[in-house]
Amino acid sequence: MNFIKLIRKNKTVLLIALAVLIMGFVFLLLMNTGKGDLAWSSLMRLLSPPSPVAGLLVLMYHDISLEPPTEAELMAITTTADKFAEDIDTLLELGYKPISLEDYYYGRVNAKQKYFIVTFDDGYVGVHDFAYPVLLEKQVPACVFFNTGMEIYDTFLSFGQLWHMEKSGLINVYSHLEYHVKATEMPVEDFVDCLDTSLTKLRRFLWEENKFLAYPYGDYNRETYRAAQEYGVKLQLVQKMQFPAADILVRVNVAYDTDMRKLVKKAPRN
């Protein structure tokens, strides 16, 4: 009887203990199947949000070419391979270290270190042809936020090219929705359908569970944020913080004429 009374008085403690035991069992199971790193990273992520760091810059590139853009409207979304390499060298000189979005998400960071994350939007073929060799040479990780409905066009990446880059271990591919549309200009149900179509294609062709979303035009609101969360998106990348949230990262656009030293001083920190 005393044991029953003890259980009734300490239900919360017992539930917590049971949850810990279950987590421990899953952890040991993954360890025994050779997935120890995944088990440990997942456990750490479950117990705490991303670790704060001395500085985190999330850079947003689009297309990469060999020659400088000549049209004004392309200046903001196109840079050259040489300028891209120069940007990376400048960040390294300033004491920043490259990190993947996965590393940030799983907390594989040093709180005293400054980091930068390279991202590419839309999925232009220049990322494969001109940016990828630079990333390989410098061993800098990056991610591509891909409009999955655009792969049929010659100027955009194919799933074969994306697969080729992912095999290097340096590149990850995530969702930029099916097409380059503003999320807030459609009913939330259509937004979820657009997200689902994109993620389904990425799972089918790249055999990888997708965790992250970058909004086209950085366009989002509380409704799309909650809908993406409920769908299972773990990090949402935007261009301006509209409300505080631990799973939102703010990116800064890098153009051909961007001075990286000046950008570092004024760019938003995450």
Helix-strand sequence: HHHEEHEHEHEHEHEHEHEEEH
Distance between the termini: 54 Å
- Mean residue pLDDT: 86
Count of distinct strands: 11
Structural features:
270 residues, three-stranded parallel β-sheet, single chain, TIM Barrel, 2 domains, six-stranded parallel β-sheet, alpha/beta
Can you tell me about this structure?
The strands form 3 sheets. Strands 1, 4, 5, 6, 7 and 11 form a 6-stranded parallel sheet that branches. The protein has a 3-stranded parallel sheet with strand order 8-9-10, covered by helices on one side. A two-stranded parallel sheet has the order 2-3. It contains 11 helices and 11 strands. The longest helix has 22 residues, at 11-32. Helices cover 45% and strands 17% of the residues. It is globular and about 45 Å long. The protein is an alpha/beta fold and 270 residues long. It folds into 2 domains: 2-41, no CATH class; 52-266, TIM Barrel. The protein has helices at residues 2-9, 11-32, 36-47, 72-75, 81-93, 101-105, 125-138, 159-166, 188-206, 222-231, 260-266, and strands at 55-61, 63-65, 78-80, 96-98, 114-122, 142-146, 171-175, 212-214, 235-238, 248-250, 252-253. Mean pLDDT is 86; it is low at 33-48.
